[in-house]
């Protein structure tokens, strides 16, 4: 070793300076590998190739005499609703329709049937024979309220809307019609019909031999409580009926029992042959992931079907109607769902869910008929046969055509177990149109009662396969509908006296986030033009530019779009009051609740006396000019976000209270701009049992036209598309799913039990467009 170079000392301690593990360099072979980088290497492709080989072997070994069935004969289409279960083969013309109800043996004591009212009731002393309002002399269309009952006040508001439409169509009003109908109904005596003359008599079940009864048999039990049965409906709206069931597993057991019984008795399918059938499951548009997961697991794993495909109701309805673009309105028994379909794909942000349907019309009709002395005095809505009486009356009496309103005579038949059949007569006037008008004027519906006792069902086996997303709880259309209820999330300026010396005050004042400058980080209300309510300014319309001096003189609006929307509605002659929540908007844009208090007013502290003064202006006011104040922005005290999406209100629940016409417009608005709105409002497809109401198409067209004409530029005529000829709108979604089940393209959507066992909910996510 050369001189001058010291010996290098080796570190014998072998201590590492860090615990971080430095990985080795990647193998170049792995970088250039094609493993799982092509479609043919996925498990889906391997299963399809394996199925193709098995089919080829089966075709070679099959005997020539083997006959193949009709196309779709091995595909079952299941559409489970709140009131009806529609199930059948894809090759069938119409499905088998049975009530989705089960009566199961229960250990004593059997809980009594209770009816939770969803319609506001009048006072006890005004249920019968007390007219709520009288017509004014000189103007047959004007009415004056003669009662202080909240029910009468809300009904009178619906009546005023009806009289305005009758005035527009120049239809006469029958004077004193309520008293005439009440007098006739009160004195009517029923006619007894002998059993031999009743062709529609019911064979009531008086024995308790079976462990359960399904469908019509469950409704034909003479007295379920005395026989030891409890009658339940396992599905309510878009998910499971959590109100009437003690556990989540009992709901699934009842659904499985109903399906097995209907398949065996109505379709003749033995449980041993389930592995030969594929299933097309029709699910709601605004679905619950737990609902979909549990049904798919039950059909594939528990019942053992061959494969399954899930499809949404709106898309299935467009298949059945032969349309590619439509705004589908599905009006069922307990819910009304609205969704826009664009070229075979459901627009997720346009989905709306309304907590009202045909059952609310039935109950409201009963309340209105009781006001005019309904002749059937012993009616009880908790009994199935009494509910069927009102369902029959609703189907035959209710209408939305103003020309059908008249003081007419109707009849109905009551069949009760152990008693002879009775035939009643009934006179009614505008009750037959006020009941279905509750869809457009939902003032009388008690939405809180619908939500009472209905919570999320606990599930102990929730895994990472189910990822909670914001779209599972609310959509853009729902946020548009409830923007006027959201508090303004703006900072509150607090002026504090500066003691060290004067500081130059900004000449233009602090700028409010979200108005003149970009919004600051933190919780804020979406400010997009598509987030406006139907009562606000339409897209594309902006206020004219103002100079700086005018902006300083006039207080700045703290809610974007509020003042513009109010001025627009004043020009159109309408009001921006929210009838369902009792809230209204002040001219300065601050939201005012029912008790008259403003949301998050600005608080300005004077430098001399320290007294707080409330003001709605965004520009701070300096009280003591000799000393400049220091500006400190503090966030407004907004309630903690306890609802999905981080909002301080339940957006999903508040949006479910909207009138039907406003909800349809907001759904179309959430799908895009003005062109999209015109596109979908000219192709509104109405399906469901409530769509059979006479005059429904014209009622929707006229109301949607009145909303869309002032808000959408170049808006042409709104058009309601009827279902195809000779097709029941109640089964249109099922027929569309049956069409899908017979198509060759459905081969890419099937999920096998093996796929579900490996992937779980990921299988649906990769095989469906909507998850």
UniProtKB/TrEMBL annotation:
Pfam family for this entry, one: Actin
Residue ranges, compositional bias (Basic and acidic residues): 544-556
Xref: InterPro entries: Actin (IPR004000), ATPase_NBD (IPR043129)
Coiled coil spans: none
Annotated spans, Disordered: 49-69, 500-615
Compositional bias of kind Polar residues: 526-540, 568-583
Signal sequence, renumbered to the chain: none
Membrane-crossing segments per the record: none
SUPFAM superfamilies named in the record: Actin-like ATPase domain
Gene3D superfamilies with a match to the protein in the record: 3.30.420.40, 3.30.420.580, Actin, Chain A, domain 4
UniProt cross-references to PANTHER family, sorted A to Z: ACTIN (PTHR11937)
Family stated for the protein in its record: Belongs to the actin family.
Protein name in the entry: Actin-related protein 8
The organism's taxonomic lineage, starting at the top: Eukaryota, Fungi, Dikarya, Basidiomycota, Agaricomycotina
């Amino acid at each position: 070793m050369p001189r001058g170079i010291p010996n290098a000392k080796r570190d014998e301690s072998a201590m590492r300076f860090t615990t971080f593990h430095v990985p080795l360099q990647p193998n170049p072979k792995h970088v250039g590998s094609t493993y799982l980088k092509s479609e043919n290497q996925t498990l889906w492709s391997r299963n399809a190739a394996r199925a193709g080989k098995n089919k080829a072997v089966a075709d070679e070994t099959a005997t020539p005499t083997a006959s193949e069935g009709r196309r779709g004969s091995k595909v079952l289409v299941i559409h489970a609703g709140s009131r009806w279960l529609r199930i059948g083969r894809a090759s069938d013309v119409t499905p088998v329709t049975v009530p989705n109800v089960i009566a199961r043996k229960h250990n004593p004591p059997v809980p009594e049937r209770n009816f939770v009212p969803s319609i506001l009731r009048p006072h006890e002393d005004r249920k019968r024979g007390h007219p709520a309002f009288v017509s004014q002399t000189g103007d047959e269309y004007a009415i004056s309220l003669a009662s202080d009952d909240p029910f009468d006040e809300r009904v009178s508001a619906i009546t005023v809307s009806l009289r305005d439409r009758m005035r527009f169509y120049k239809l006469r009003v029958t004077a004193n019609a309520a008293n005439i109908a009440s007098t006739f109904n009160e004195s009517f005596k029923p006619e007894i019909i002998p059993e031999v003359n009743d062709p529609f008599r019911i064979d009531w079940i008086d024995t308790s031999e079976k462990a359960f009864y399904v469908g019509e048999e469950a409704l034909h039990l003479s007295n379920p409580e005395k026989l030891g049965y409890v009658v339940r409906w396992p599905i309510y709206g878009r998910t499971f009926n959590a109100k009437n069931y003690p556990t989540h597993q009992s709901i699934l057991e009842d659904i499985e029992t109903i399906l097995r019984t209907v398949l065996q008795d109505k379709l003749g399918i033995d449980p041993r042959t389930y592995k030969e059938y594929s299933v097309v499951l029709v699910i709601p548009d605004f679905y619950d992931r737990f609902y979909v997961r549990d049904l798919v697991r039950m059909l594939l794993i528990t019942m053992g079907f061959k494969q399954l495909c899930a499809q949404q109701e709106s898309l299935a309805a467009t298949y059945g109607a032969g349309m590619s673009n439509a705004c589908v309105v599905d009006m069922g028994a307990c819910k009304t769902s609205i969704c826009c379909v664009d070229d075979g794909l459901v627009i997720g942000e346009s989905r709306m869910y309304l907590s009202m349907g045909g059952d609310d019309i039935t109950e409201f009709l009963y309340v209105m008929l009781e006001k005019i002395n309904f002749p059937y005095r012993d009616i009880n809505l908790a009994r199935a046969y009494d509910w069927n009486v009102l369902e029959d009356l609703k189907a035959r009496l209710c209408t939305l055509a103003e020309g059908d309103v008249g003081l007419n005579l109707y009849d109905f038949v009551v069949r009760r177990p152990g008693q002879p059949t009775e035939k009643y007569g009934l006179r009614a006037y505008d009750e037959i149109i006020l009941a279905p008008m509750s869809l457009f004027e939902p003032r009388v519906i008690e939405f809180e009662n619908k939500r009472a006792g209905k919570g999320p069902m606990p599930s102990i086996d929730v895994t990472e396969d189910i990822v909670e997303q914001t779209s599972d709880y609310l959509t853009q259309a729902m946020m548009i509908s409830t923007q006027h209820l959201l508090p303004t999330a703006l900072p509150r300026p607090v002026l504090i006296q500066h003691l060290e010396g004067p500081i130059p005050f900004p000449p233009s004042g602090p700028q409010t986030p979200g108005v003149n400058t970009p919004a600051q980080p933190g919780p804020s209300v979406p400010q997009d033009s598509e987030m406006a309510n139907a009562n606000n300014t339409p897209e594309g319309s902006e206020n004219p530019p103002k100079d700086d001096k005018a902006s300083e003189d006039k207080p700045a609006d703290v809610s974007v779009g509020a003042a513009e929307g109010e001025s627009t509605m004043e020009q159109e002659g309408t009001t921006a009051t929210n009838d369902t929540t009792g809230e209204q908007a002040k001219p300065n844009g601050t939201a005012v609740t029912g008790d008259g208090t403003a949301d998050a007013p600005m608080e300005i502290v004077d430098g001399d006396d320290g007294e707080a003064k409330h003001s709605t202006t965004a520009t701070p006011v300096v009280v003591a000019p000799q000393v400049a104040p220091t500006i400190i922005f503090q966030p407004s005290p907004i309630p903690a976000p306890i609802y999905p999406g981080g909002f301080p209100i339940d957006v999903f629940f508040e949006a479910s209270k909207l009138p039907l016409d406003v909800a349809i417009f907001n759904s179309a608005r959430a799908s895009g701009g003005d062109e999209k709105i015109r596109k979908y409002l000219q192709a509104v497809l109405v399906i469901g049992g409530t769509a059979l109401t006479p005059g429904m198409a014209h009622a929707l067209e006229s109301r949607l036209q009145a909303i869309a004409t002032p808000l959408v530029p170049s808006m042409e005529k709104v058009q309601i598309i009827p279902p195809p000829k000779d097709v029941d709108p109640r089964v249109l979604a099922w027929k569309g799913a049956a069409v899908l089940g017979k198509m060759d393209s459905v081969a890419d959507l099937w999920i096998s039990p093996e796929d579900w066992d490996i992937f779980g909910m990921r299988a649906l996510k990769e095989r469906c467009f909507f998850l």
